[in-house]
Design brief:
The structure holds three protein chains of three kinds.
Chain A (H helix, E strand, L loop, with lengths): L6 E3 L4 H11 L3 E4 L15 E4 L8 E3 L3 E5 L4 H5 L10 H8 L4 H6 L2 H6 L7 H7 L3 E5 L3 E5 H4 L4 H4 L5 E8 L4 E7 L9 E9 L10 H8 L3 E9 L6 E2 L13 H14 L10 H23 L7
Parallel strand pairs in A: 1-3, 2-3
Antiparallel strand pairs in A: 4-5, 5-8, 6-7, 6-8, 9-10, 10-11, 11-12
Helix pairs in contact in A: 3-6, 10-11
Chain B lengths: L1 H9 L18 H5 L15 E7 L5 E7 L1 H5 L3 E6 L29 E2 L5 E7 L2 H10 L1 E6 L30 E3 L4 E9 L2 H7 L2 E9 L11 E6 L5 E5 L4 H12 L6 E4 L16 H11 L3 E4 L2 H7 L2 E2 L2 E9 L5 E13 L5 H10 L10 E9 L5 E2 L6 H19 L3 H8 L8 H5 L16 H12 L1 H4 L8 E11 L9 E8 L5 E5 L8 H13 L6 E5 L16 H28 L7 E3 L2 E4 L2 E4 H11 L6 E7 L7 E11 L5 E11 L6 H20 L29 E6 L22 H13 L10 H14 L3
Parallel strand pairs in B: 1-13, 11-12, 14-18, 16-17, 21-22, 28-29
Antiparallel strand pairs in B: 1-5, 2-4, 2-6, 3-5, 7-8, 8-17, 9-15, 10-11, 10-13, 15-16, 19-27, 20-21, 20-26, 23-24, 24-25, 27-28
Helix pairs in contact in B: 6-7, 9-10, 10-11, 10-19, 15-16, 16-17, 18-19
Chain C lengths: L1 E6 L2 E6 L6 H7 L18 E4 L2 E4 L12 E3 L12 H9 L8 H14 L5 H7 L11 H15 L12 H15 L5
Helix pairs in contact in C: 2-5
Classes of the chains: A alpha+beta, B alpha+beta, C alpha+beta.
The complex binds flavin-adenine dinucleotide and FE2/S2 (inorganic) cluster (2 copies).
């Protein structure tokens, strides 16, 4: 219960919302999907500023960037044009399994990021996708996702800050996300999001006979792997540089899995042993790359 | 012998059924789909108070001091109950027939707490928040005692004694030794196991473990009680056993049964957990103390922690077989963890044997049960009732036996399973708190189940072909039996009266908890009375209005209560014929019912004329009859279950891809409902096998009492489930019916375990098969094979 | 605080506690078809439509509903005039205890409003937030397929056209998923 809550505000413009938040100082919070706030026991908050009436739920795909406004829901992401875009695949995959359907219908990308939990899914995808987060108070500033997730985002946001949009650079590559839970929409025991670009020599979706062999064992020009469900916040895998530009045969994938395993130290989770979650993180990373490659080739993959 | 009469009556209707054996729409489903107020909490009561229960944070402690004065002084608080101000009545919360075969080891409140979640005190207040606040104001000083958390240690000398109170007792002759934490014990030996094993060419043995699991009805427990205009206590409650609620609440509150009325509205699922008196006694007591309506409901986490669970078990099984596949010995040793109270310990434990051992013929059979107390959550009735626990080792070892003998697992079952005309000494040896009842199997469709199920899943083509790559496929099967009612103990009764328009009121004590029993019983009445289903107006389970019934458990409703309905309908039918005969001056023996009219001897009298005549014209009387039924058999339904799994050898994830359940439930009175029962039980069984479990910390506290982390399956986790109903005719059941609702929860764990073996060659003996466990087993095997 | 909203077509002016959950407020005002199964956002028994979209009312503060339009299952149809989806649930045998049914029906409504001819995969995803312990979902999926057909023909119920479509589709999906190594 929000014991001290006395009022709701329903601004219709960003300016109004930001002003209302600023005015109330630490006693007001933005309210998006409410899936986390409604059941929280925040004893400080007195005013909730409903930000779902600001018209900030669009998802725009431009030639140089993808803009996801803060109130786009997980369900909205899965139904948007992102679903057909290989490079945004990781976020669509993540949104598809971010809890049960009733939650996905309500939870917003802004809320998911602001209130990042150890098992949260969209933030892992956003980390792999090098998102830039647009934060508005009186003025706008943009913070890279890697920086934002150095500590818990709620700490990086000062009272009055509103995440208004999440911007993804157009990569021309492909991405994918996978998680392991006990059921499909369970909180992640481990998750992995990868973003890849494939060597220029191999063009997206084309299959000439000469390149066919190459296409079966393509080479990456970019690889970024983010892992979730293992630590309090999503983490970025490091030391993967050597894998870029090398033929992606079985050994390549096993090396990737080993590299991942060797660098994660999962925090305790009663539901499964840490050693298991570490092993699976490697498998998920490997398979997410496979899935992204398939996507890049234009082959249908079950999300 | 009432049974004989019934058999004779059954015969003329076996052909040409009009309502029975048809998938008629469930009579309450449209109301439920349109959201009419029907459940316990859908009615509001003026001046209602809200109850809350303070529970123990400790697994094992004595309450040294308890001070409720601050709670009582809080504005808006109307009553506080604790052990110091309520009667101390030893009882069992198990809703079973009197005298219950469960230990009387429970008190409304006690000065000792025996598990985390045990009752300490209860409050009634103006609002739910105020009630919770009052609970927080109750000061309790606990003397913590050493907790007993390992059932294997329970009977060791020096183990903490959980029920050291002098008044814990049993009211039937049974082995009960609380000083040794022994809540229930049974053993028997038929023939000689020693000899049986000596004669065997192969001897298989293994220790298997099953876990704590919860029923998870989507509606948690809820009770509302209030006083009627005569000061009687009315209890509106989500229960499977309204008549047992009335009796047990009467005892606990020390008021006569006649001063209590129990109403069962629609129930949001039970699966056994509502065969338990958990809130009713406290709620009624709060109403008696305050004179006001009181509501108590469990939150989801209270439902997990403080209600009831499936008893976990550790089962050691030995099988002896000849090279020919003939069985020479079956020995089952069950250590059943009943938690802090002995609810259903003896009977669930006995049913591990009674519903599993007779499936296969063996001259030598031994069974040993120890049901032990621990300081953990309390076991109870749960769909499957022991058969779930014991089918797992039995069907897994049968799979191993088939492999050892080089036989197809289907053939091994076909060779050994009990069938029509045969009996098993186990029936006689194991009853429910007393010796069992001898029984000759009257119907068995297991051969057909095995054959049809095997075809449906392409057993011979697909088995033993795991493929390569990280994901391996496998097929497994399990053969099953259950029972239908508890013979010579359970009683169901029905009352039918006729109205002037030719409609009938059917009043039954039987409890529809979502199973569709109101519909099934109405179908039976409609069939006898040759009317459409909508002419039967059903009212079930109101102890002031309907006749007695033990309630919805032991797979008894269709078989037992259905027969009571059939008998009552036959009596009403006779009265109708007599009235019509009088009206038209005919001999009733020349008349019969057809399509809602009395016909024969050249007359045709529609039922409304008979009804109107009887109520208004001459020699007025109410056409009505009551009938009761007690069975002398518990005819088993049989089933063969087949699972196809995909095992991920890198993550350990097991995906059930296809599931086929072929079930012999005799005549399916309503095939659509019978399928629904099967599908629901199968999916529950699958998530029990794969994910469901209680996680405890070292102090015995459940760590995952939420749907968030106790995972039950949703639509995206669902495999393809195919149900095949194999019809047989059970001579002692109404229209040939046996039970269907429980049996199918028993199949998934062993069928999946066997399928996992087919896929990756590892044998799992502990449920659930979570990915980490499966992966560890695969890796252990890789290591031992040195690959 | 004051709250203005529309429930099942009826304008409502309610006085509420600011921290109150929509689920509790609706039930207090007599909309008892909205059920509490968990209060944790997992089971979907509390599903309502908010401006046509499915939401878990246990995860919404009532205050969020200012000016919104809510539909509960009572507003969809009645015993005398049931909605085709409600009829489909009855015909398919998808109602056992019925506690999950209002939520299932509304989740189906939201799905079919958005996607009139969903694939089986889309149906299963749309309903993955509605737990049912009784049915094993088989007949619930049948009911959705029947609803699709019924709505296509303007509310007529041809027959149980949806039956077995669901089995087949699941099998195919599972086949694909497990082949692709994409188990959850
Ligand atoms: C049962 C259940 C299961 C779930 N499962 C998963 C899962 O598997 N994976 C997953 O990823 N998520 C899951 N979630 C969702 C997750 O836990 C959060 O509830 C959700 O991400 C919060 O989003 P929201 O829009 O509802 O935020 P709200 O509850 O509205 O807000 C959460 C916090 O973020 C702040 N906030 C919201 N929007 C902004 C903004 N634009 N700028 C600044 N601050 C903001 C709020 O002030 C508040 O402090 C689940 C939730 C539930 C209830
Ligand atoms: S009660 Fe809302 S999701 Fe369970
Ligand atoms: S019908 Fe009972 S929970 Fe779905």
């Amino acid at each position: 219960m929000l014991d001290q809550l006395t009022d709701f505000l329903y601004p219709t413009t960003v300016e109004e919302a930001v002003e209302a938040l600023a005015k109330a100082g630490g006693k007001a919070l933005p309210l998006a999907g409410g899936t986390s706030l409604a059941l929280s026991r925040n004893a400080r908050v007195e005013v909730l500023v409903d930000i779902t009436r600001l018209g900030l739920d669009r998802i725009d795909v431009d030639s140089d960037r993808i803009e996801i406004q803060c109130c786009a829901t997980a369900h909205g992401i899965t139904r948007s044009s992102l679903a057909d875009l290989p490079e945004a695949g990781a976020l669509v995959d993540a949104a598809q399994v971010s809890g049960p359907s009733g939650v996905r219908a309500a939870m917003t990308m802004g809320g998911s990021l602001a209130q990042c939990y150890p098992w949260s899914d969209p933030p892992v995808a956003l980390l792999a996708l090098e998102a830039k987060v647009e934060i508005t108070r009186k003025t706008k500033r943009t913070v890279g996702i890697t920086k934002l997730l150095e500590q818990h985002p709620s700490k990086a946001l000062t009272p009055g800050d509103l995440i208004t949009a999440i911007v993804l650079p157009r990569s021309g590559g492909a991405s994918a996300f996978l998680k392991q839970g006990l059921t499909v929409t369970d909180d992640a025991l481990a998750s992995a999001a990868v973003s890849i670009r494939i060597d220029q020599g191999q063009e997206h979706g084309k299959k000439s006979t000469r390149r066919k062999k190459k296409a079966e064992a393509p080479q990456l020009s970019h690889l970024r792997v983010a892992l979730g469900g293992l630590r309090p916040l999503p983490i970025l895998a490091t030391g993967l540089e050597d894998l870029v530009g090398r033929p992606m045969d079985d050994a390549w994938y096993e090396t990737l899995a080993d590299l991942i395993r060797s660098q994660v130290r999962p925090t305790e989770d009663a539901r499964a042993p840490s050693a298991y979650r570490r092993t699976v993180a490697g498998v998920l990373a490997k398979r997410a790359v496979q899935k992204a490659v398939e996507r890049w080739k234009g082959e249908p993959t079950p999300v | 012998m009432t049974n004989k009469v019934d058999n004779r009556q059954a015969a003329p209707w076996t052909e040409d059924w009009n309502v029975v054996n048809r998938p008629v729409e469930k009579i309450d489903s449209l109301g439920l789909a349109t959201g009419v107020p029907a459940f316990t909490d859908d009615e509001t009561f003026k001046d209602m108070l809200y109850g809350a229960i303070l529970t123990s944070p400790h697994a094992h402690a004595r309450i040294r001091r308890i001070d409720v004065s601050k709670a009582e002084a809080l504005a808006g608080v109307h009553a506080v109950l604790f052990h110091g101000n309520v009667p101390r009545v030893p009882h069992t919360t198990a809703g079973q027939s009197y005298p219950e075969p469960s230990a009387y080891d429970t008190f409304m409140f006690d000065n000792k707490v025996r598990y985390v979640g045990d009752r300490v005190a209860a409050v009634a207040a103006e609002t739910p928040e105020r009630a919770l606040e009052a609970c927080r104001l109750i000061e309790v000083e606990y003397e913590e005692l050493e907790p007993l958390l390992d059932p294997r240690r329970a009977m060791e000398p020096g183990a903490p004694v959980i029920h050291d109170e002098p008044d814990a007792t049993v009211i039937i002759p049974m082995d009960y030794d609380p000083k040794r934490n022994l809540a229930a014990h049974v053993d028997f030996e038929i023939g000689s196991i020693e000899q049986g094993l000596a004669e065997a060419d192969v001897h298989l043995e293994g220790e298997f473990e099953t876990q704590y699991a919860q029923h998870c009805p989507i509606e948690p427990h809820i009770t509302i009680s209030y006083l009627d205009e005569r000061g009687r206590v009315v209890i509106r409650t989500s229960t499977q056993v309204p008549f047992h609620v009335r009796r047990i609440v009467a005892a606990c509150c020390q008021i006569p049964v006649g001063r209590i009325r129990v109403i069962k509205p629609r129930i949001g699922g039970g699966f056994g957990v509502k065969q338990e008196i958990l809130l009713e006694d406290v709620c009624a007591m709060l109403t008696l103390r305050t004179g006001r309506p009181v509501k108590i409901e469990y939150s989801r986490s209270e439902e997990f922690v403080s209600s009831r669970t499936r008893h976990p078990s550790i089962i050691q099984l030995d099988l002896g077989l000849k090279r020919t596949g003939e069985m020479t010995a079956i020995k089952m040793d069950v250590l059943l963890n009943t938690g802090a109270y002995g609810s259903h310990a003896l009977t669930v434990g006995s049913n591990c044997g009674a519903k599993v051992l007779p499936l296969y013929r063996s001259p030598n059979v031994a069974f040993n049960l120890n049901g032990v107390y621990t300081n953990l959550p309390v076991g109870g009735a749960y769909r499957g009732y022991g058969a779930t626990q014991a089918s797992f080792p039995m069907e897994c070892l049968m799979d191993e036996a088939a492999e050892a003998l080089g036989m197809d697992p289907i053939d091994l079952r076909l060779k050994n399973h009990i069938t029509t005309g045969q009996t098993s000494d186990v029936f006689k040896a194991l009853g429910e708190g007393r010796p069992g009842v001898e029984m000759i199997i009257g119907s068995c469709g297991l051969d057909e189940c095995l054959k049809q199920g095997a075809d449906a899943i392409s057993w011979r083509e697909r088995r033993g072909k795991p493929g390569d790559g990280p994901i391996r496929r496998g097929l497994g099967l399990a053969a099953l039996m259950q029972g239908s009612s508890i013979p010579e103990i359970d009683m169901g009764a029905a009352f039918i009266k006729m109205n002037e328009d030719g409609s009938f009121n059917l009043l039954v004590g039987a409890t529809d908890l979502g199973t569709g029993s109101d519909t099934v019983l109405a179908q039976i009445a409609a069939e006898v009375l040759t009317v459409d289903l909508d002419r039967i107006v059903v009212k079930s389970s109101d102890t002031d209005i309907t006749p007695f019934d033990v309630g919805a458990y032991a797979s008894s409703t269709t078989y037992l209560s259905g027969m009571a309905v059939k008998k009552a309908a036959a009596r009403v039918r006779r009265q109708i014929l007599e009235v019509a005969a009088k009206m038209k001056n005919k001999d009733p023996d020349d008349l019969s019912l057809k399509d809602g009219a009395v016909v024969g001897a050249g007359i045709e009298v529609p039922l409304w004329q008979v009804g109107t005549h009887s109520l208004y014209k001459e020699d007025q009387f109410q056409i009505a009859a009551t009938a009761s039924h007690v069975t002398h058999k518990s005819p088993p339904p049989f089933a063969a279950h087949f699972a196809e799994v995909a095992v991920d050898t890198e993550t350990g994830h097991v995906q059930v891809v296809r599931y086929v359940a072929a079930v012999d439930c005799g005549t399916a009175i309503n095939p659509q409902l019978a399928e629904g029962q099967t599908e629901g039980a199968v999916l529950n069984g699958i998530s029990y096998a794969l994910t469901e479990q209680y996680l405890f910390d070292s102090a015995g506290r459940m760590k995952n009492p939420h749907f968030r982390d106790y995972k039950i399956f949703s639509t995206v986790d669902l495999p393809s489930i195919e149900t095949i109903l194999v019809p047989t005719y059970e001579p002692t059941g109404p229209y040939g019916a046996k039970s269907v609702s429980e049996i199918s929860i028993n199949g998934p764990a062993p069928a999946i375990a066997n399928a996992i073996y087919d896929a990756v060659g590892v044998r799992l003996r502990t449920i659930p098969f979570t990915p980490d466990k499966v992966l560890a087993a695969i890796e252990a095997q890789r290591k031992s094979h040195g690959t | 605080m004051k709250l203005e909203l529309t429930v099942n077509g009826k304008p409502c002016h309610w006085d509420i506690e600011p921290g109150a959950l929509l689920l509790d407020v609706l039930r207090e005002h007599g909309y008892t078809s909205v059920k509490r199964g968990c209060g944790e956002g997992v089971c979907g028994a509390c599903t309502v439509l908010v401006d046509g979209k499915r939401q878990n009312s246990c995860l919404l503060l009532a205050g969020q509903m200012q000016g919104r339009t809510i539909t509960t299952v009572e507003g969809l149809g009645t015993i005398d005039h049931p909605h085709p989806i409600q009829k489909a649930f009855v015909a398919a045998g998808a109602v056992q205890c019925g506690f999950c049914t209002p939520g299932m029906v509304l989740a189906t409504k939201a799905l079919l409003d958005e996607t009139p001819e969903p694939t089986d995969e889309e149906i299963r995803r749309a309903l993955d937030g509605n737990l049912c312990r009784c049915t094993g979902y088989v007949k619930i999926l049948d009911a959705v397929h029947i609803s699709v057909d019924a709505l296509k023909t303007g509310g007529q119920h041809p027959d149980q056209a949806g039956r077995h479509k669901a089995h087949q589709a699941i099998e195919e999906a599972m086949d694909q998923a497990t082949k692709a190594g994409d188990t959850p």
